[in-house]
Write a structure and sequence with these properties.
Layout (H helix, E strand, L loop, with lengths): L2 E5 L5 E5 L3 H30 L4 H23 L5 H6 L1 E5 L7 H9 L1 H7 L3 H9 L6 H6 L1 E5 L4 H6 L4 H6 L12 H16 L3 H18 L8 H16 L1
Antiparallel strand pairs: 1-2, 3-4
Length: about 240
């Protein structure tokens, strides 16, 4: 399992699990098959409506742009995820942990034809294999990586409480049911980093995150330190959503 430490704009380091070459290949295959079937169905429908005489026009105006710009548009509109990436639970993010913007996805897309189509995927596979961050050329230029959205997530959270503890534990903050799995994963990573690197930056990150979670969950009164409060949120989430 290959991972990457990403420093967020809040000076917090989060560990992500990188998408493997196999996962990226399967994601591409899903996209390619889905897109090919969609293009064939659209072509058949339009030819049936306009006749054989409009084939070249249909291909030029509708089918070809759809095939070429599918990945670019999907990743721009869907936070770095095409249909294939969604199916495999992976996504494109910036090296600093933020969501990519239009320019980033355009940089990745600009080299897509060279890396995936002209070399039958060979160049992209070689680049991903040789890169220490599993990046193809487009990723290197866009300063992006492809990561797993939920790396070993359920196992990691449940491991916080053994079976006996879960059965005996009484949740403190019922509003945690409004949190997403991404919220809990982020809290977990911040806590782990604080325990590993007990410096002022990570203590400040605990305070900022605690304050944000209080506002999000409508919590007025808390007990204990910031790290204790955040750990309680995770425990409550595990018990109430298991």
């Amino acid at each position: 399992m290959e991972t990457i430490d990403i420093n967020t704009p809040q000076n917090v380091t989060i560990n992500y699990e990188l998408a493997s070459l196999r996962e990226r290949i399967f994601g591409f295959i899903i996209d390619f098959v889905t897109l090919s079937i969609s293009c064939l169905l659209l072509f058949s429908l339009l030819v049936g409506s306009f006749g054989d005489g409009g084939k070249n026009i249909l291909v030029t105006i509708l089918i070809l742009p759809l095939f070429l710009f599918y990945s670019l548009v999907f990743e721009m509109m869907n936070n770095g995820k095409s249909l294939g990436k969604m199916a495999l639970g992976i996504k494109v993010i910036k090296i600093d942990g933020t969501e990519g913007v239009a320019g980033d996805f355009m940089a990745r897309w600009a080299f897509r034809s060279l890396e995936l189509y002209l070399t039958l995927g060979g160049f992209a596979a070689l680049m991903v294999s040789l890169s220490d961050k599993n990046q193809r050329l487009g990723d290197l230029l866009a300063n992006t990586v492809v990561v797993k959205e939920r790396p070993s997530f359920t196992m990691s959270l449940v491991a916080l409480l053994n079976k006996k503890t879960i059965n005996e534990y009484q949740p403190v903050y019922p509003s945690v049911i409004h949190m997403s799995e991404e919220d809990v994963l982020f809290i977990k990573e911040v806590l782990e980093r604080y325990r590993k690197y007990r410096n002022e930056a990570h203590r400040e990150a605990l305070k900022v995150l605690s304050d944000k979670m209080k506002i999000k969950l409508g919590i007025n009164n808390t007990v204990g330190r910031y790290d204790e409060f955040l750990l309680t949120l995770i425990k409550d989430y595990v018990v109430l959503t298991r």
